[in-house]
Amino acid sequence: MFEAARPPHPSEIPDGVAAVDPSQCAEMAHAGSSTPAAPDAADAAAGLAVETAGLTKRFGERVAVDGVELRVPRGSAFGFLGPNGAGKTTLIRMLLGLTHASAGTMSLLGHPVPARRAEALSRVGAIVEEPRFHPHLSGRENLRIIAAARGAEAHARIGPALERVGLAERAGDRVKKYSLGMRQRLGVARCLLADPLLLILDEPTNGLDPGGIQEFRDMVRAMVEREGRTVFLSSHLLDEVEKI
Ligand SMILES: Nc1ncnc2c1ncn2[C@@H]1O[C@H](COP(=O)(O)OP(=O)(O)OP(=O)(O)O)[C@@H](O)[C@H]1O
Ligand SMILES: [Mg+2]
């Protein structure tokens, strides 16, 4: 990727320490409305999309995530920066209740995780590492399978979601014929079936070329500025986080 070709920025390499340092977080533009697209009373009361305090994960002796403190306002795009092995995926897995924290607390959209994980995740869309699909089915068919489990409202969102990510024209093609960028965008479309207030995306631009990265940035910006969603994404590229 073109950013990777330049010398690493010092802040990308935290002295080889395998931990997410809160100072490595780069907050992106706070552009757009701070009001979610469809707020309800409980949502309005809780002003933060993501909040963590002292969030820590140990694997045996290894500290993968070390005391992370985050306060991500609603209606913002927020990039979480760290090199390979820094703990980005582990942090996201904790937020989603996929792995237990060793210490600390966290909440999504005002709901503590894991205590109220189901409420928290009902308006969250997430991609952890690479989105996976049935390769022999089309993009639209893959979304239909997801929507079938979620109900009629999700089904009605398939068309708009495909439009939103720029895949409407190719939605009838089998996913195995998609480029990586198209699969990443289909992953976002899948998230949109839940009409999420918060999208959590783990390195969504990994492997994309400069054009694909630019398209992704534009899409994130529109979801934040026009739709009032919050986008929380991880990246190992400083440029990526700064430019959104
Ligand atoms: N299940 C596990 N068991 C033991 N160690 C783990 C486990 N998952 C992650 N780790 C360790 O935790 C640290 C953080 O890993 P993680 O995958 O969260 O990093 P990352 O920032 O997402 O890296 P990348 O940029 O390569 O995706 C690494 O040292 C990794 O080896
Ligand atoms: Mg990772």
Q: What proportion strand? A: 15-25%
- What is the SS-derived class? alpha/beta
N- to C-terminal distance? 17 Å
Compressed to H and E, one letter per element, the order equals EHEEEHEEHEHHHHEHEH
- Give the overall form: globular
Number of helices: 9
User: What is Rg?
Assistant: 17 Å
Q: What molecules are bound to this protein?
A: adenosine-5'-triphosphate, magnesium ion
**Major β-sheet profile:** 5 strands, mixed
**Approximately how much helix is present in the residues?**
25-40%
Mean pLDDT: 81
Low-confidence stretches: 1-38
Write the SSE topology.
Blueprint: E1 25-27, H1 41-45, E2 48-59, E3 62-73, E4 77-81, H2 88-95, E5 103-108, E6 111-113, H3 117-121, E7 124-127, H4 139-150, H5 152-156, H6 158-164, H7 180-192, E8 198-202, H8 210-225, E9 230-235, H9 238-243
Parallel strand pairs: 4-9, 7-8, 8-9
Antiparallel strand pairs: 1-4, 2-3, 2-5, 5-6
The protein binds adenosine-5'-triphosphate and magnesium ion.
Residues 18, 59, 62, 64, 82, 84-90, 236 line the site of adenosine-5'-triphosphate.
Characterise the protein shown here:
The protein is α/β, with parallel strands linked by helices. The protein has helices at 41-45, 88-95, 117-121, 139-150, 152-156, 158-164, 180-192, 210-225, 238-243; strands at 25-27, 48-59, 62-73, 77-81, 103-108, 111-113, 124-127, 198-202, 230-235. The strands form two sheets. The protein has a five-stranded mixed β-sheet, with helices on both faces. The chain has a four-stranded antiparallel β-sheet with strand order 3-2-5-6. Helix 6 (158-164) crosses helix 7 (180-192). The chain is globular, with a radius of gyration of 17 Å. The structure holds adenosine-5'-triphosphate (ATP) and magnesium ion. Magnesium ion binds at residues 88-89, 202.
